[in-house]
Amino acid sequence: MHSDLDVFHRLTQLDKEFPGAAILTHKDGVLPPAFADLWANPRLLNFMEQILGPRVCASPIWNVRPKGPSASTPDGDIPWHQDSGYFDPASYRTMIPVVWVPLLDVTEDNGCLQVVEGGHKTGMVCDHLNCYADTWHVMLDESKVEQTLNVSLEKDVKTLPIKKGSFIIFNNLVPHRSLPNKSEEIRWSLDLRYQKPGLPEGLYGELPTITLRDPADPDLKVDWSPYIENRHVHQHKMTSGKDAAPAEMLDTTMTGPWMKQWRLVNSNRHTQAAGLALQGQRA
């Protein structure tokens, strides 16, 4: 369908005919070989070695993100958050830097990132709230940001437009968001995470880290087999307590254990699918 359109326009048309198609793309968490090759790219590992030390692992929370035009695919809008707001609290002391890679030039018009400079320095995870608008995304409790993180969401914000072929590195405590996509193109991006071995990985123990570099094994061949399975199947089971039926893989709701971690302030189809309800409301 719509094979005449390129990768930056096709999914928008599919989403118009099957609302939520972009969500299914995000949920298809099977790691393609090309993404694995980028994750283990020696130049990226050189960066990570400077941050994490000589032994570098892949952390199992990764994503391909199709951020469509906000007017037609609002699920792609991302509010202020820290990555640790989605992670297992056991991992809050683990440094989990992310490499954010856009697949086209990103600007203020098509949804580049904004970060809050210095927001990681207290080493704290601020309270988050469930869930933003009609999405599954958690959002910072903005009333507590200044007290907890010692930063301002007005004065300390940095906007980061970058060119295709560039990337942004930040850790799991840096508050960030993406701006609305006011263009007609899909803003595709990848986020690939790294950490030291032997530390909590953030995915509630469901998937392991994978060693990418170890000086004790200079000829290391990376075993990607744990990431071949769709990790969103694990998220579904962690939230619902049961395996996903085949038909549920076409379900355009997104659930995960982070939803039960933070106070519910907005009910929508994603929170209801997770069995959550506002006080006085049935799930």
Main beta-sheet strand count, sense and barrel state? 5 strands, antiparallel
- For the record, the CATH architecture stands as Sandwich
Q: Can you give the helix content as a percent range?
A: 10-25%
User: Widest sheet: strand order?
Assistant: 8-3-10-1-11
Separate helix tally: 7
Strand portion: 15-25%
Large-scale geometry:
globular
Could you tell me the number of beta strands?
Answer: 12
The CATH superfamily title: Jelly Rolls
Amino-to-carboxy terminus distance: 36 Å
Number of domains in the coordinates?
1
- Helix/strand order, N-terminal first: HHHHEEEEEEHEEEEEHEH
Average pLDDT, all residues: 90
Can you tell me the residue ranges where pLDDT is under 50 for at least 5 consecutive residues?
A: none
CATH class: Mainly Beta
Helix/sheet category: alpha+beta
At CATH level 3, the topology is Jelly Rolls
| Rg | 18 Å
